[in-house]
Fold this protein.
Amino acid sequence: MEYVLTTQNLSKAYRKFQALDNCTMHVPRGAIYGFVGKNGAGKTTLIRLICGLQSPTAGSYSIYGIDYKEKSISKSRRRMGAVVETPAIYMDMTAAENLKQQYLLLGLPSYEGIDDLLSLVGLANTGKKKARNFSLGMKQRLGIAIALAGDPDLLVLDEPVNGLDPQGIIEIRELILKLNRERQITVLISSHILDELSRLATHYGFIDKGKMVKEMSAAELEAACRKCMRVEVSSTAALSRVLDSMGVEYKILSDTAADIYAKLNISELTHALDESACELRAITEHDESLESYFMGLVGGGERE
Amino acid sequence: MKNLLSATFARLFKGKLFWIGMLAMGGFGAVATIARARDAYILQDMGYDTPDGLLFIGLTYFLITAAVFDSLFIGAEHADGTWRNKLIVGQGKVQIYLTYLTVTTAATLLMHLAYIGVVLGLSAPLLNPFLTPTKMNVVFFFCSLATVVAMNALMVTLCMLIQSRAVIAVSAMLLAIGLMMGGMTIYQTLSAPEFLESAIVSIDGMPMPSPDPVPNPKYLTGAKRTFFQFLHDFLPGGQALTIGMTGELPESVWRLPVFSALLTLLSTLGGAWGFRRRDLK
């Protein structure tokens, strides 16, 4: 598999705080790589490093196979665009003026394409409105337009839907999918909004306390997210006795609900519960969410 | 770096800040010249009818101009986070530093020239010609350019190394006022007369005016005077006073551009090194 971005044991310490600890990551070409982690897990630190805003304290990374210490890394960086934390835009300029600045910075020969870029991100009608008067969603989209100005092959987005309203979240999601499908842009997107990420990502990297816990494809994740039966009973105490006697893995959710990670004969279960004077009220098939998988992975929840 | 320069100059000329600075310095020149012409009219034959001493007086306040301009121009980059766009596309931190030094140097020089241009333009019809030798004005003009470059280099170092726009604005203003006050204090200390002409001395227990000049205890001598003179020549606050308020060309005038160049070099080396090592957010 060809990787556009790889990190090898990348570490970053701020004085005594180890923000990134031997983090190894592989972003395949053409992927939407969901970079998942809690707040403070090290997602933004890694993005700051690969964008050249900060230098690693140990380890290395390469973009398009070029190590960050090589001089030609600046050429590789020209092939990437990024929005790190908040969009980097001049607040006293219009959307078009901000893009002109980026075009000059990139040394592009003309301003052709600015209108197309503004249309692509849905800012074609902003006219003379200054960026400071934009909504958060508009600023975010302008940030993405600036990141796209150099026609990059790799787009790095750090928490792009943070603080957006539902409409804004949908717009950004559709834009990312469009860029990936129509322009074959590889996207590295960090987020702690897992449900949103699960609608986009083709690959995942799970980070916790600065360490990469696991990398996997969406297909692998789907396989790993086990299906379960969610049951509602009159007493989970009685249910757990029955399930223990059957040697089945389960998770108690409340006094009356539990997830069972096995295919059980419903008649047998009903009979056993009946003998324990426990009423079975409902059974539904349930997929383990990305969220619960992540929590299981980083130790946020223990299965019994 | 060519692209960086081109983008940054475009931002400079597109924004209002630079033009407000030009207007402010040009306006200051106009007010100063018109006030001199009014004095010449009211106080006839009192020596106020020439632009002497007017041409470089703007330089003594120029630290404030540089502090305000640099803190707002560079502070916006910190506040809006737009350094990131530059670094992400592969520009180096040292290149970015040198670009901002170049652009702000050009801007502050143009503001300084706006003041001088307005003074020269208005004094021609309103006042009599200069009495001071042309050579002195020319030499001081080139010295003033070097001083402006040094003032700006110092401000750029400060503004590039601090990441908060509010802290930059306060720090730059404090540095400007500190350098101006320091320059004034050193200038006054060095200007103290060696002897006091009308000192009161005690003769037979009675306070009497001294018949002879008395050595001034506040007059600096030896190594102390050399050190104060060095500070006066080295720091931009002192240089501005020498150029703006001295009526004659000092023998050691060559020290001014040399020290300006040294200050520019040292602050740029330190600033670029610090900015390169700095973790940007």
Remarks:
- The longest strand of chain B covers residues 200-203.
- Chain B has one domain: 2-277.
- DSSP finds ten helices and four strands in chain B.
- Chain B has a mean pLDDT of 86.
